[in-house]
């Protein structure tokens, strides 16, 4: 095996199935040695099974690659450190991290419990931070490395019943940008991918209307393997021009997503009062207000 990631060591979290599995396989095919991390939990994060991580590692080895399984949780600093340390202990270094591990506990905002909020934030946002912090020490010392974080249009645009997931995913985009800014002096890159693909997590979303059912049927045709090529490219040295960017992948489409920037302003020499804001500022800006869109309202066309 040879390719874009020859000689590199890559850690892929949540790699026991779905998008993570395909990215782990693609990294190995491109020449990387892979740490396949997965705790083997349900979509909601409950339970544990060492089988998925081992199975994917065996798939890689059967194809002629090098891989080891790991079943530590990304949601605690000690276990996140252990994941990265296994890469270093096994292969002598770490060059890339794909922060893909995640769970869902969907609930309408006013009905969401604190444990449902905490669990999702902990795995997605805290997990991405802990994994990046653990790898960042090695990246800084060797003056090279790349992160790929999984964000979501649920956070970038919006979605129903996913306040915990959306907050975590938008937080990951900001975390990635901060890492890119802080670590660029050490030749370390950090980018995000918002994936569209049929997976266990998507399959768990309730379908309550014919419109939602139709969207789910379209999602079933978007395979997880479509996400992997961009992830491999961003980890490679030849992808070094991309740093601090947010991409989306939907079947054969790759999007560069916008990042918040000022779009209009209003000014008064006298300064503002609450009354003048209501009378002047808000009406002047109203034409540029954003609608209460959700991801499906923006991505309305069939990509296949």
TrEMBL record:
<dbReference type="InterPro" id="IPR051687">
    <property type="entry name" value="Peroxisomal_Beta-Oxidation"/>
</dbReference>
<dbReference type="Pfam" id="PF00106">
    <property type="entry name" value="adh_short"/>
</dbReference>
<dbReference type="InterPro" id="IPR002347">
    <property type="entry name" value="SDR_fam"/>
</dbReference>
<protein>
    <submittedName>
        <fullName>NAD(P)-dependent dehydrogenase, short-chain alcohol dehydrogenase family</fullName>
    </submittedName>
</protein>
<feature type="domain" description="Ketoreductase">
    <location>
        <begin position="8"/>
        <end position="201"/>
    </location>
</feature>
<dbReference type="InterPro" id="IPR036291">
    <property type="entry name" value="NAD(P)-bd_dom_sf"/>
</dbReference>
<dbReference type="InterPro" id="IPR020904">
    <property type="entry name" value="Sc_DH/Rdtase_CS"/>
</dbReference>
<comment type="similarity">
    <text>Belongs to the short-chain dehydrogenases/reductases (SDR) family.</text>
</comment>
<dbReference type="InterPro" id="IPR057326">
    <property type="entry name" value="KR_dom"/>
</dbReference>
